[in-house]
Design a protein that fits this description.
The complex is a heterodimer. By secondary structure, chain A is of the alpha+beta class. Chain A has a single domain, classed as Cytochrome-c3 Hydrogenase, chain B, CATH 1.10.645.10. The longest helix of chain A has 29 residues. The termini of chain A are far apart. By secondary structure, chain B is α+β, with helices and mostly antiparallel strands. Chain B has a domain of 99 residues: Alpha-Beta Plaits (2-Layer Sandwich), CATH 3.30.70.3270. In chain B, the strands form two sheets. Chain B has a two-stranded antiparallel ribbon with strand order 1-4. In chain B, strands 2-3 form a two-stranded antiparallel sheet. In chain B, strand 2 and strand 3 form a beta hairpin. The termini of chain B are far apart. The chains are: A alpha+beta, B alpha+beta. The interface between A and B is medium-sized, with 22 and 17 residues. The structure holds iron/sulfur cluster (SF4) (2 copies).
């Protein structure tokens, strides 16, 4: 037993993208224990949603919970509110929601991948990934009218229609992106320098992942087949749009990179299917009802399962809203996966979790 | 070795970034920009004020009952809810114009925080005045009726 050192990282740190605090106990550069403290950015959004805002306005408030998966939050809230109102939304609106969620997944996964590359010390790949990511931001801006806060889902449907020329342009840009994605997959898979930092780092096995209730690409990289898109069909018809499960086995940073990259192919396929088979119809189901009763909704955000619970009491203001973000479920697994790794790989491992602490702390 | 040649080749490529602000960046035609208002078409139903999530629209009212529209572009989140809720097409509309930065002289935050409650108060004052006048008129009417009997 050598001498142990405690190394604090965060809450503000140069290699951390998020306000979280890790305390590593190390022995000879090897992490033997890690602690995490995540609640640094509590904003009281749930309370505001149940007091200050009317239930139709809440979908714009929860869009501001997270910048990266804004559309997942708005859609999940809209779905839970629709359950409370007991309305069914038009099929076209469902398809358009899927379209924007998948585009959002493309940009979120590429952002995460670029940060893994950067934190592994591969700055050039960071820039390359960011360069290739830009097309998805432009598409989102073209479809939703804004780069980041899409405000696309509203209670009852979606706020804007997809114009035919934008749809054609989207398909064209996706086709241009395909060879770039192949190139990225090749680099992340075969680059020798990157593999030194990523292979075997931050590994978690399937049983541990299941025991710690890990979700999203983090779980799928360990071979655990959890994806809400695979489980629910009632709210959004994922399988009809061509969803396929992507799994890896090793559960390390390398596997997480590959899961994210291979999921992009699935996302692209879904977007193409949605645009080619877009049903005609209205965008919004109008209703004058007020939310009543309780409901839960689960939705696959880029980082994993997003959970919404809402309770209404036949007034304009909700009685309770509960948001459980994917990173919250992953915290236990994150702490576990550090064990027995070099301290030097910690930045890459943190980035590969794709943590979103603003969502977690709300 | 391949990456070495790639690195050399990259030296002669054009940069992929846009030289903003000297070059314009991509902006769609239906960008969600500033909210415009047409006083002639508005029917003063105040629905846009009621739905606006951050409270970027408020109507004040003078003692004659004339309403004035106030809008704060720094509070607005450009969601377009006001446009969707408006019963009169064209009274309120969304332009593709990005919001300009606020200047210190505009006093956009403190001025708005002061204006908002004042506007609500002015409406309450008008409503109270209307109620008082109505009550007076009713009283006068009742008096004339009793006199006639
Ligand atoms: S666009 Fe949205 S935030 Fe802006 S004034 Fe209209 S309703 Fe309010
Ligand atoms: S909703 Fe339209 S008509 Fe009503 S007050 Fe607003 S702008 Fe005027």
């Amino acid at each position: 037993m050598g001498k142990t050192y405690e190394i604090p990282v965060g809450a503000q740190h140069i290699s951390l993208l998020e306000p979280l605090h890790f305390k590593f106990t190390t022995e000879n550069e090897r992490i033997i224990k890690a602690d995490a403290n995540v609640y640094y950015v509590h904003r009281g959004i749930e309370q505001a949603c149940c007091s200050k805002f009317k239930f139709r306005q809440v979908s714009f408030v929860v869009g501001r919970v997270c910048g990266l998966c804004s559309i997942s939050h708005t859609t999940a809230y809209s779905q839970v509110a629709e359950k409370l109102l007991k309305i069914e939304i038009p099929k076209r609106a469902k398809y358009l929601r899927m379209l924007v969620i998948e585009l959002d997944r493309i940009h979120s996964h590429l952002l995460c991948l670029s940060h893994v590359a950067e934190n592994s010390g591969f700055e050039a790949l960071f820039m390359k990934t960011m360069q290739y990511r830009e097309f998805s931001m432009e598409l989102l801006e073209g479809i939703c009218g804004n780069r980041i806060q899409y405000d696309y889902s509203i209670v009852g449907g979606v706020s804007r229609d997809l114009k035919p020329e934008v749809a054609d342009w989207t398909l064209k840009r996706l086709k241009e992106f395909m060879p770039q994605l192949d190139e990225l997959l090749d680099i992340y898979q075969n680059n020798w320098t990157l593999s030194l930092k990523n292979k075997g780092a931050g590994a978690i096995d399937k049983e541990t992942a299941l025991r710690l209730n890990v979700v999203g690409p983090f779980a799928r990289a360990a071979g655990l087949a959890v994806d809400v898109r695979n489980e629910t069909e009632d709210l959004l018809p994922w399988k009809e749009a061509g969803f396929e499960m992507v799994l890896e086995k090793t559960g390390d940073v390398y596997a997480r990179n590959l899961v994210r990259l291979r999921e992009l192919y699935v996302s692209i396929k879904i977007i193409q299917n949605v645009i080619n088979g877009l049903p005609e119809g209205a965008l919004v189901t109008e209703t004058k009802a007020f939310p009543d009763g309780e409901a839960v909704v689960r939705l696959e955000a880029p980082r994993g399962e997003l959970f919404y619970y809402a309770k209404g009491n036949k007034t304009q203001v909700l009685e309770r809203l509960k948001i459980k973000a994917p990173t919250f479920s992953n915290v236990a697994g994150m702490v576990e996966a550090f064990n027995n790794n070099e301290y030097g790989s910690a930045p890459a491992i943190i980035a590969s979790y794709d943590p979103c602490l603003s969502c977690t702390a709300r | 070795m391949k990456s070495f040649f790639n690195a050399i080749a990259n030296l002669f490529k054009k940069p992929v970034t846009t030289q903003y602000p000297f070059q314009p960046t991509y902006k769609p035609d239906d960008y969600r920009g500033l909210i415009g208002f047409n006083e002639d078409l508005c029917i003063w139903c105040r629905r846009c004020e009621a739905v606006c999530p951050p409270g970027a629209i408020v109507f004040s009212q003078d003692m004659e009952g004339k309403q004035t529209y106030h809008y704060n572009r720094a509070v607005c989140i450009y969601c377009g809810e006001c446009v969707r809720s408006c019963p009169k097409e064209g009274a309120i509309f969304q332009t593709a114009e990005p919001a300009p930065c606020a200047l210190k002289a505009e006093n956009i935050n403190n001025g708005w925080n002061k204006l908002f409650p004042e506007a609500i108060q002015s409406r309450e004052a008008f409503a109270a005045e209307k109620k008082r006048k109505a009550a007076e008129a009713a009283k006068a009417k009742a008096e004339t009726e009793t006199k006639q009997q």
